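Q: My labmate handed me this sequence with no annotations at all. I'd like to see what the chain might look like in three dimensions before we decide whether it's worth expressing. Could you predict it?
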Amino acid sequence: MSFVFSNIDGGTLDTKDWLGKPVLVTNTASHCAFTKQYEGLQSLYENYKERGLIVLAVPSDDFNQELETNAAVKEFCDVNFNTDLPMTEITKVIGEDAHPFYKWVKENTDFSPKWNFSKVLISPAGEIVDTFGPLTGPNSRKITNHIENLLAKGN
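A: Here is what I predict for the chain of 155 residues:
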């Protein structure tokens, strides 16, 4: 699995750099009822990053709830949630113009975000482990059990 995203901090984020590590990818938005999940994403990242977990936030305006610019999104997340997890620029996650990562997920699982804060867990081998809707919080046992198992196995 190798997908390149534009990094909100400049440059790119290449998923091939994360092979060997589990990755939780979440489409996010700043003006959503689920926006407080940023707290959970950040705490999940802090709890597991030393063991290898990557948590990738993918801001998207596909559901008309994101700020206008990448700079505004970055500032919002820094000020409100003190985030330091990897984050892409505002990215399409559904439809024909969806980022190739989300097209790949759809082709392989028939999962496509139906709303903000949908999650995709990728194994260290680059395979889709599971997908979760926005009602499943980042620190839910459904997600953390998978992460614990992946980190224990190392694949």
